[in-house]
Write a structure and sequence with these properties.
single chain; mainly beta; OB fold (Dihydrolipoamide Acetyltransferase, E2P); 5-stranded antiparallel β-sheet; 38% strand
Length: 276
């Protein structure tokens, strides 16, 4: 079954000159529209492609992957306007349409907006800026410690808002962010907790003991690479700790505490951490 707006794995069933036709499960085939098709491909080979409808309503495919698939939310730039709406740059030669009916307000060329990709009633790909109807801030399925995909959006009084798995709102707290974040940035994060009001708190570092265990190995390796001495301690600035190990100060303190109790390191106010 073909999934329009998604990545599909399809078999080559016909070649006519430079044209490559892929299976569709129907009498009509899916045309590969890449200007440079894969080298040395033959009938029977399987290709991983993105499938969509062209302007004539025909199924076509490309080996290129857009910046957002159907049902995903992304931060995309407007590159042109016409009488039907705004067109977004999304990584394919065919730009993505935001119809006027799907715009909260008039979009401007050169500016970027958060949009959700969807299929219209004719199975054509389009986008909408009216994303709030698709996202909730109330959790019913997430659990603390769960790894999730995040899309960074706006700053808030508490820190930074992020969209979780294209479906939910969550918050990263300012005092727990130790790396620069940009609107539209995609990265992995973790569910820190589900609050009593069922809203979601997030962290970028993996919570729990598993993170500490992996960090202790990193600290020991770094000590061995630096003649057994590391000029860091539980008094070091969070930004310095994050720059070296990519973790929060809290997780770092837990790790050196575990190493100290195992008598693998000593703690020195002047020299930081020393390998025993």
């Amino acid at each position: 079954m073909i999934n329009i707006g998604k990545i599909n794995t399809l078999k080559i069933v016909k070649q006519v000159g430079a044209e490559i036709h892929l299976e569709s499960g129907k009498p009509s085939k899916v045309l590969l529209v890449d200007k440079k098709p894969p080298e040395n491909c033959q009938i029977g080979d399987v290709l991983t492609v993105f499938v969509y409808l062209n302007s004539e309503g025909q199924l076509v495919a490309t080996s290129q992957t857009p910046l957002a698939l159907v049902d995903e939310i992304a931060w995309l730039k407007v590159v042109s306007l016409n009488y039907v709406g705004a067109f977004l740059e999304w990584g394919l030669p065919k730009n993505l349409l935001v119809p006027f009916s799907e715009q909260h307000h008039e979009l401007e060329v050169g500016k970027s907006y958060l949009v959700k990709v969807f299929l219209d009633d004719k199975n054509r790909l389009a986008a909408t800026t009216k994303i709030d109807q698709f996202i909730t801030d109330i959790s019913v399925d997430f659990v603390a410690g769960q790894k999730v995909s995040l899309l960074i959006t706006d700053k808030s009084e508490l820190g930074v808002k992020a969209i979780i798995n294209n479906t939910h709102w969550g918050v990263l707290y300012e005092n727990e962010i130790f790396q620069p974040l940009k609107k539209g940035q995609k990265l992995d994060g973790y569910i820190k907790q589900i609050r009593e009001d069922h809203k979601i708190d997030l962290v970028l570092d993996q919570p729990g003991y598993g993170k500490v265990l992996s960090l202790t190995d990193s600290i020991l390796l770094k000590l061995k690479q630096n003649n057994g001495v590391l000029m860091l301690s539980d008094k070091s600035p969070p930004e310095t700790i994050y720059a070296i190990f990519g973790v929060s100060k809290k997780v770092f303190k837990q790790a050196i505490g575990a190493l100290y109790r195992q008598k693998l390191i000593s703690l020195d106010k002047e020299h930081g951490i020393k390998l025993m």
